[in-house]
């Protein structure tokens, strides 16, 4: 499972892109504070800059996505997106921004279920992307979301009050403009969910080689 990304810009350029997209007001940080926080991040090869969920909520980050001039959105039946936390095997650095490296879209696992894909990712010595990390990737490289080549982010799950995992698993794909999406959203980036036991031919499983703090 080789890394998919090898042309990400340096972290300062990625930080500037987040600022230009309008992330600043959503984080409550000034441009200078964002740049200062990013300077403390590990600068490793193929590094993707990720705002922590406490810095930029996934539901807010999704609105910064664009495709063909159309803004991203969260499906109407996922109002609890921000309550989806990293699964126990995913260790997210405790800092405002961190980086991940060696991202792969997981195209080879298209038509697998999340329940099937998670152990395969772990066996490969990799870690599944969280929904916030998947959005962060597309904010920097929106072209990575392509027709019939979209992806799930099974590093995030919702824990129910009884301690069991909610059966939904987050995914990011392209809206067909049907149903409650609305025709005006056809072609827009869409953050939604799929059942953990279901398969979809157009969804891979995004993963990374590593997460890095400072």
Structural features, described:
The protein is an alpha+beta fold and 214 residues long. The protein has one domain. The chain is 23% helix and 22% strand. The protein is built from 6 helices and 14 strands. The strands form 5 sheets. A 5-stranded mixed sheet has the order 4-11-10-8-12, covered by helices on one side. Strand 2 and strand 3 form a beta hairpin. The protein is globular and about 45 Å long. The two termini are 26 Å apart.
Which key phrases capture this entry?
214 residues; alpha+beta; five-stranded mixed beta sheet; three-stranded antiparallel beta sheet; globular
Major β-sheet, in short?
Answer: 5 strands, mixed
Query: Helix content range of the residues, please?
Result: 10-25%
Q: How far is it from the N-terminal to the C-terminal residue, by CA?
A: 26 Å
Strand order, main sheet: write it out: 4-11-10-8-12
Assign an overall shape: globular
Q: Strand content of the residues, in percent?
A: 15-25%
Integer-rounded radius of gyration: 16 Å
Number of helical segments with 4 or more residues: 6
Domains counted in the coordinates: how many? 1
Strand count: 14
The H/E string reads HHHEHEEEEEHEHEEEEEEE
Backbone structural class: alpha+beta
Stretches with pLDDT under 50, minimum 5 residues: none
Average pLDDT, to the nearest integer? 95
List the helices and strands and how they pair.
Layout: H1 11-21, H2 23-27, H3 31-39, E1 47-51, H4 58-62, E2 66-67, E3 70-71, E4 73-74, E5 85-86, E6 97-101, H5 114-123, E7 127-128, H6 131-140, E8 150-152, E9 156-157, E10 168-174, E11 189-195, E12 203-205, E13 207-208, E14 210-212
Parallel strand pairs: 4-11, 8-12
Antiparallel strand pairs: 1-6, 2-3, 5-9, 6-14, 7-13, 8-10, 10-11
């Amino acid at each position: 499972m080789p890394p998919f990304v090898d042309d990400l810009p340096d972290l300062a350029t990625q930080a500037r892109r987040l600022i230009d997209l309008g992330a600043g007001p959503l984080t409550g940080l000034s441009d200078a504070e964002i740049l200062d926080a990013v300077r403390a991040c590990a600068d490793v090869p193929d590094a993707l800059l990720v705002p922590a969920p406490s810095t930029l909520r996934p539901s807010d980050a999704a609105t910064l996505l664009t495709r063909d001039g159309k803004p991203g959105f969260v499906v109407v039946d996922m109002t609890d997106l921000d309550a989806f936390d990293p699964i126990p095997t995913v260790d997210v650095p405790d800092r405002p921004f961190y980086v991940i490296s060696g991202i792969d879209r997981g195209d080879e696992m298209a038509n697998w279920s999340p329940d099937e894909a998670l152990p395969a990712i772990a066996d490969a010595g990799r870690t599944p992307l969280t929904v916030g990390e998947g959005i962060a990737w597309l904010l920097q490289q929106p072209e990575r979301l392509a027709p019939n080549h979209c992806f799930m982010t099974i590093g995030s799950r919702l824990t129910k009050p009884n301690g069991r995992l909610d059966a939904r698993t987050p995914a990011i794909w392209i809206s067909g403009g049907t149903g409650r999406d609305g025709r005006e959203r056809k072609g827009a980036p869409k953050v939604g969910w799929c059942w953990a036991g279901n398969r979809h031919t157009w969804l891979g499983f995004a993963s990374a080689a590593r997460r890095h703090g400072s």
